[in-house]
Design a protein that fits this description.
With 578 residues, the protein is α/β, with parallel strands linked by helices. It has 20 helices and 13 strands. It has a four-stranded antiparallel beta sheet with strand order 1-2-4-3, covered by helices on one side. It has a four-stranded parallel beta sheet with strand order 6-5-10-11, sandwiched between helices. Bound molecules: arginine.
């Protein structure tokens, strides 16, 4: 049984009632037990409606049969049948209290470990070398890191890899430009490299001779010319240092060891193509080698190709991605492939997966998922840019976040002066991450400091405040609860809060199932809100009795643990004091 997951527990009871009364087998999930907003109702069960249709019976009649056979008097009050056949369920307070007992001693706060762990390779961040990371790379890093944490927490083996754009034609022009500038070989800082890229690009577009030399450079690079390779390494290393700084500031778990740039797969490209050829996938078209995944056509109805070898013999983005799939599945023996990459590349991945299945690299034992996401927009609703219209550099943005966070710290902060920079960082970086994660990832969202740092809203600051406040209660009371103390529910606000605290498991489950971190942020917001009502309505320092005070201390402590764990699964810190 999944400890602490109230909805599933009730689902199990409903499933048992159906077996007894109608001889129908369903899973606990199929009982569709959802939290209810109706006054005095905690959960609603909708299964009678869908079943009635299948059984050719009246839904209210089915509901009555379920209720008649339901063995749940220990957990719920007398169920009520409402409307066309909903079953309204209200938990018994005594049951909530006994569930709380097991939660208090459980480090996982009820979240179960999966029965069959998978080995999962997750591709996230994956910026391009020799260009500064910009805000577009932010979403991939934040979402990928949060999903890695969630999947790891429930027991999967997660292997992140950074598919750096570190190979291919742009390097010809970059290296050629490097050899022609006076400071060739000097240590370039990354901001210089950014400008450097622009210069090289301009030369490439304007000067056909340069373009020819750049193309020759690509051949030299691919042919393993030593001097060319050394220059290339310089460019890559400089970029890596910069990326690592950003990951550290962002608190993202991607490390230098997780770098598997496009260059890594270079030695495997020829074999990859041979295998595609042997699998009968390759067609020649205008001198290029192509694959045509079935079902992909353009507006005119022509089949869409992925080019695996250009007519000049060069390999492209798709070829490397085929080699990547082959490597992770075959050599690294992963079960599943996840790609956290912007939605514009959705078709690319669907085409890759289709061919990889036909080639036999992916089988029914593997899942491969493109986890797409929308863009970050400025307040004008257009692509997020700096005031002067340039692309926003990630490092600048994150510095600004920490600066802005300083403004929302309380005047009479409980934080020691020495710790304030760390706390400002936790708030500022947390706000940027939370704003990203709390939006449905497939949608675009608007980047607004005011909104993402609002103390009273669906923000990380709000949950961080609730957590710090929960922890400050026991400091103020100055004692810990008796060892035998229990949570006893008196006030409605206590009941509401406890009910929320018991529902971390389905929130985590939902976030994982849909690769949808916003399901978890939504839960944390509701929990912080329930705590805030509790905080206003249920005094702890001046509680009517020691028993009540103990219970409230336990509730506050549990709130802090739920918020801290929930935020940490999203890669967001929860400072103990604010
Ligand atoms: N470097 C690419 C870009 O910035 C993203 C790579 C995503 N991963 C992949 N396996 N194709 O667009």
């Amino acid at each position: 049984m999944l400890r602490g997951d109230v909805g599933l527990e009730l689902g199990q009871r409903v499933a048992a009632a159906l077996r007894v009364s109608l001889g129908v087998e369903i899973t606990p999930e199929e009982a569709v037990i959802r939290p209810s907003n109706r006054d005095g109702v905690d959960f609603q069960c909708n299964v009678a409606m869908s079943l009635a249709k299948k059984l050719g019976k009246n839904p209210r009649e089915v509901a009555a049969l379920i209720v008649g056979a339901l063995d749940a008097a220990d957990a719920v009050e007398e169920p009520e049948i409402a409307g066309p056949g909903f079953i309204n369920l209200t938990l018994r307070t005594s049951w909530l209290e006994s569930e709380a007992v097991s939660l208090l001693t459980d480090d996982r706060l009820g979240v179960p470990v999966v029965e069959s762990p998978r080995r999962i390779a997750i591709d996230y961040s994956s910026p391009n070398v020799a260009k500064e990371m910009h805000v577009g790379h932010l979403r991939s890093a934040i979402i990928g890191d949060a999903l890695s944490r969630l999947l790891t927490f429930v027991g999967h083996e997660v292997i992140p890899h950074n598919h750096l754009g570190d190979w291919g034609t742009p390097f010809g022009m970059l290296i050629e430009h490097l050899t022609e500038t006076s400071d060739a070989g000097d240590d370039h800082s990354i901001s210089d490299l950014n400008a450097f890229y622009q210069e090289a690009r301009q030369k490439f577009d304007a000067d056909p001779d340069f373009a020819t030399r750049a193309r020759k450079r690509v051949v030299a690079l691919q042919g393993g010319d030593e001097r060319t390779l050394a220059l290339w390494r310089d460019l890559v290393d400089e970029s890596l240092r910069h990326f690592q700084q950003v990951y550290e500031l962002l608190g993202v778990g991607m490390t230098a060891e997780d770098s598997y740039g496009e260059s890594f797969y270079n030695p495997f490209l020829a074999d990859t193509i041979t295998e595609l050829q042997n699998a009968g996938q390759i067609e020649e078209s205008d001198g290029a080698l192509c694959v045509f995944p079935p079902g992909f056509r353009n507006r005119d109805g022509d089949r869409l190709p992925l080019i695996v070898r250009k007519s000049d013999g060069g390999y492209g983005y798709a070829t490397t991605d085929f080699a990547t799939i082959r490597y992770w599945i075959r050599d690294r023996k992963v079960d599943d492939l996840l790609y956290v990459v912007g939605s514009p590349q959705s078709q690319h991945f669907q085409m890759l997966f289709a061919i990889a299945r036909q080639a036999g690299w992916l089988t029914d034992d593997h899942t491969s998922v493109h986890i797409g996401f929308g863009s970050i927009l400025g307040e004008d609703g257009k692509m997020f840019r700096t005031r002067t219209g340039g692309t926003v550099k990630l490092a600048d943005l994150l510095q600004e976040a920490v600066f802005e966070a300083g403004k929302v710290m309380p005047e009479k902060s409980e934080v020691d002066a020495a710790d304030q920079p760390d706390v400002a960082r936790a708030i500022g970086i947390g706000a940027v991450k939370y704003a990203d994660l709390s939006n449905d990832r497939e949608k675009d969202y608007v980047f607004t400091w005011d909104k993402m740092l609002a103390k009273n809203g669906d923000t990380s600051v709000y949950s961080q405040y609730a957590n710090a406040r929960a922890l400050s209660i026991s400091r103020k009371v100055g004692r810990v609860p008796e060892a035998a103390a229990r949570i006893v529910v008196g006030e409605p606000a206590e009941r509401e809060l406890l009910l929320k605290l018991l529902q971390l498991p389905p929130a985590v489950q939902a976030a994982i199932e849909g690769y949808a971190p916003h399901k978890l942020t939504g839960y944390l917001f509701e929990t912080a809100t329930a705590f805030s009502t509790f905080y206003n309505e249920c005094p702890v320092l001046t509680a009517p009795s020691q028993e009540v005070q103990d219970s409230r201390l336990l509730l506050a402590d549990l709130t802090s643990r739920v918020l801290t764990l929930g935020l940490s699964l999203l890669g967001i810190e929860a400072p103990e004091r604010l």
